[in-house]
Write a structure and sequence with these properties.
Layout (H helix, E strand, L loop, with lengths): L2 H11 L5 H20 L4 E3 L3 E8 L2 E4 L6 E4 L2 E8 L1 H7 L19
Antiparallel strand pairs: 1-2, 2-5, 3-4
Helix pairs in contact: 1-2
Length: 109
């Protein structure tokens, strides 16, 4: 599903809203999520999952083209952890759902 599919599905479920209104709601939703994450916040959508920022340490890596050793600086990356209800929906019914353990917010995951 891409953004336009989501907008179309929401429009079909809410015919009283104009397409431009639905598009604006979707844009505001994603803009707010991105803004909150960019400020280091954690987002929890109950029954769906949570987003947080993970700190990645600086490390040495090899340039695959030249083989030269290069320094990769520290950086931040968004992480997502699916809720148990989502995991249960995507796993076959006969499989055991294994939920990863929670890591500290400040540590690397």
């Amino acid at each position: 599903m891409v953004r336009s599919d989501l907008i179309h599905a929401l429009q079909c479920a809410n015919p009283e809203l104009r397409p431009d209104e639905v598009r604006r709601i979707v844009d505001l939703f994603f803009d707010e999520l991105a803004r909150h994450l960019s400020q280091g916040g954690r987002i929890e959508l109950r029954g769906f999952g949570s987003f947080h920022i993970s700190q990645r340490e600086a490390k040495k890596a090899h340039n695959p083209r030249t083989g030269q050793l290069v320094e990769k600086p520290a950086y931040q990356t968004p992480r997502f952890r699916a809720a148990k209800t989502i995991l249960a929906r995507i796993q076959p019914a006969n499989d055991v759902v294994r939920v990863p353990q929670r890591h500290n917010e400040g540590g690397s995951s």
